[in-house]
Amino acid sequence: MRIRLPSLDAVVAQDTNLRGADDPSLLKFAAEQDRILVTQDVRTIPRFAYERISSGYPMPDVVVVPETMPIGEAIEEILTIIECSDQKDYLGQVTHLPI
Question: Residues 74-86, buried b or exposed e (16+ Cβ, 10 A)?
Fold first, then answer.
């Protein structure tokens, strides 16, 4: 994605001290850092995200990418979100790809 969008400010959880962190910790980190969380965890992350939203905690968007989606298609979908909207448009939402 950085080839197509060099200004993209992305962080991979495995490159932080969040390796092995539980879902609520990942969501808290994303909110504190004002980052959109992209995940293939279709089972638990959305549930914790909705719990965080209903509890009134800040929540950036969570983009859920199904494991069956080809990587190229996922990248195109994510780039479309980035290029065609503002991050504020996605506060407190869980977006499932494909859109």
Answer: bbebbeebbeeee
